[in-house]
Amino acid sequence: MTEGLTPTRKRALVRTVTAHFAIGVRRACGLLRLNRASWYDRQHGRDDTTIRLRLRELAQARPRVGYLRLHVLLRRECWVVNRKRGHRIDREEGLTVRLTRRRKRASHLRVVPPRPSQVKERWSMDCVADTLLDGRRVRALTVVDHWSRHSQ
User: Fold this and answer.
1) First to last CA, the chain
2) Are the beta carbons of 17 and 23 closer than 8 angstroms?
3) CA atoms within 13 A on the CB side of 33
4) What's the predicted TM-score (pTM) here?
5) Which residues is 148 bridged to in the sheet?
6) Average pLDDT, whole number, for the chain?
């Protein structure tokens, strides 16, 4: 009956049942399958608007600063803000610092080796692994001649 309902909706139903019928909260929670801890748990939403505005100002002034440094700056201004709360507000406001990945560059100039001119001049080897239909693994060491492209 009440399996798909959220705890908020179940709390409203408990209020309705206790108001219309002469039963207690304990019995109403049992009927509606609401944990009594959820019934007595009240949300403690805080007003974060002033902290949000100040965080936004600090982040605009210092765009490369992360949430930990912004938390230190808030604490210096005598704001009582938990680090986790500051991180949550930082994420919700979209103030997180975007990390730009550096492009990998070659540390040295790569020299392309000359093409082989005869058989057995240059070889390459590699380990190859595969799985058979019955689940067994097959591993092989392949050795290839660069000039003839034949495997040994």
Assistant:
1) 71
2) yes
3) 6
4) 0.45
5) none
6) 88
